[in-house]
Amino acid sequence: MTLSKKRLAAITVCLTAIFFTLFLFLPESIVGHRADQLLLFLPKVLFLAVTAAITIAFLLIVIFKKDFMRWQLHSFNRYRYLLKLLVKRDFVTKYRKSVLGVLWSVLNPLLTMMVLTLVFAHIFRFEIENFPVYVLSGQLIFNFFSEATTQSMHSVIGSGGIIKKVYVPKYIFPLSKTLSSLVNVLFTLIAFLLVFIFTGAEFRWTMLLVPIPIFYTLIFSLGVGMFLSSLTVFFRDMTYLWGVFTMLLMFLTPIMYPIEQIPEAFRPVWGLNPLFQFVDYFRELTLHGNIPDLWTNIVCLGVALCALCVGTYVFMKKQDRYILYI
What is the pTM of this model? Predict the structure, then answer.
């Protein structure tokens, strides 16, 4: 049986309807009280249904195109050393000729946190317990996403010289940028621990689960980065538009202010922001010592998988035309 585009679209629509019905009737022990957050609950259910359907549709493509996927796996295994080299190059180049070198990976988030703390804790006077830790926890997740997607956006265009000369799996380039940003996050975690020590914040065992929200952010950033890198090849203005959008997204994510500052009527809109979900997950583990419930994990994983599937599909669909526009 062949999997045509029309058949795949029909399967995706049917699966969306099925998953929407199933998620709609999940017990309240999982999803919480529906009546209290109906405006937030229904869009999440619809989005998760679409995510589940897209994920299964993507798996069907993988199953029905075994030869293509086998070739991609072979290519990845063959060029994995190039991936390591690109990640190492990005890290070394970033701090080349600087006096403090790699130390800036720790100092930069610390200095930014100090400025934000001075402005928002003392001038705007937000009453948040242990404000420096609160700011740095949001800054860590958001900067990871922003840096990974911004660098991934230019990855294909910036590697035009390599692409024109030899065959290389093109997804290697946005993947290398995302992994380079992950390395920077590991150094930022050192700064985060230093702030915990100097502010006298309470260490909680749930901090051991911090890799989970970072993993969700990694998958989400990779998917968005692949989508943007593909789009930027054909539409160079995307570079400037994304810069404006990330600035807007920064203010729509409660990094420097508490969510309680938002009028209650608009909080469901803030809750639809994927980065808010990742930031809140990270803060629950580090600041409050709570393990987010199953529903929160389903939402975060669903957002990440949806971005990855859509980004990968668009990237693979257009990759053969990149060489004509680089």
Answer: 0.82
